[in-house]
Design a protein that fits this description.
Radius of gyration: 20 Å
Helix content: 40-55%
Strand order of the largest sheet: 3-2-1-4-5
Structural class: alpha/beta
Number of helices: 13
Order of helices and strands: EEEHHEHEHEEEHHHHHHEHHH
Shape: globular
Strand content: 15-25%
Oligomer: single chain
Length: 297
């Protein structure tokens, strides 16, 4: 029996899925953030943890673990030196392939054939495969990039909320809700921002979406701006040769109704999720992929 391990290591969480050669899922695992920003030693620990959870659930012994072929999609792996550092880490597997988390999302979305995936989660990035050539669009990191993402929504909510506190802009239900977590105290909010991560900002995204859907003026303007960035992403994806495009990520379904009908008409549904993309990267045949609704990331 052959075993395949897929890991999706992103800015908000890290998940694993272990399957046999028939595509039967034997075990899963989940942990917290696992992008390269957390440091190579901590990243290694998280990867070992989620892999260990899946292996324990499957009940595999040491000899079986040594036959596992693994595929790992890791946010931030494109940073200089990261691939080399990851390749040097000790894992008890027969083989490991490392790519970006966007790459496994695209593999899963189109079951390994060419196409593009726009990931809208904590951050935002497009992964495009045209023929045998793959490339990314965006994804340079927050706050310089990640347009239309959860982190961008959170940052855009903080700005008018702080201005509202000192009277430079109108207080709206959204701005009041944002500053409530800081006791409506500017100093506390600024102290929070000093240490805030993209995941921290992205935690405000559901709140922004809720208020936008209830016609809060500031929230609507934030979400409409995000939708414009996503529209531009999609236009660029097709202009650069993609034959199909799917949306992925935890914010994808909530932002979709804010896109123009003609844009939505160009999109396709993802065949599967990033973890199945990681299994494909590991070597699982596409014909063995389980039929399931793609998970939100």
């Amino acid at each position: 029996m052959a075993y395949f391990l897929g890991i999706d290591a992103g800015g908000s969480h890290c998940r694993s899925r272990l399957a046999d050669e028939r595509g039967i899922i034997l075990g899963t695992g989940e942990s917290g953030p696992a992008n390269t920003r957390i440091g190579i030693e901590r990243l290694h620990a998280v990867l070992r943890d989620v892999a260990g959870q899946a292996i324990a659930a499957a009940g595999l012994g040491e000899a079986e673990v040594s036959t596992i072929r693994a595929g790992m999609g890791i946010a931030g792996i494109s940073r200089p030196g990261m691939r080399e550092q990851l390749a040097a880490l000790p894992f008890p597997f027969a083989a490991i392939e490392f790519v970006t988390d966007a790459a496994i999302a695209n593999l899963g979305a189109h079951a390994g054939v060419e196409g593009a995936t726009l990931i809208i989660g904590t951050g935002s990035v497009a992964e495009v495969r045209v023929g045998t050539t793959s490339f990314t669009i965006g994804g340079y990191g927050f706050p310089i990039s990640d347009e239309g993402s959860g982190a961008a929504l959170g940052l855009s909510a903080m700005r008018p909320a702080l201005r509202a506190l000192d009277g430079r802009s109108e207080v709206t239900p959204l701005s009041h809700a944002v500053t409530a977590g800081f006791g409506h105290d500017t100093a506390r909010a600024v102290a929070w921002m000093d240490a805030a991560t993209p995941k921290d900002y992205a935690a405000f995204a559901p709140l922004v979406m809720d208020y936008a859907e209830n016609n809060d003026a500031i929230a609507r303007s934030i979400v409409e701006d995000a939708a414009q960035h996503i529209e531009r992403f999609i236009e660029t994806i097709f202009a650069r040769g993609a034959v199909r495009c799917a949306l992925a990520g935890g914010l994808a379904m909530r932002i979709r109704p804010w896109l123009r009908a003609r844009t939505v008409a160009r999109l396709v549904d993802a065949v599967s999720d990033p973890l199945d993309g990681a299994l494909l990267l590991a070597g699982l045949p596409a014909t063995a992929l389980p039929t399931r609704k793609p998970d939100a990331d």
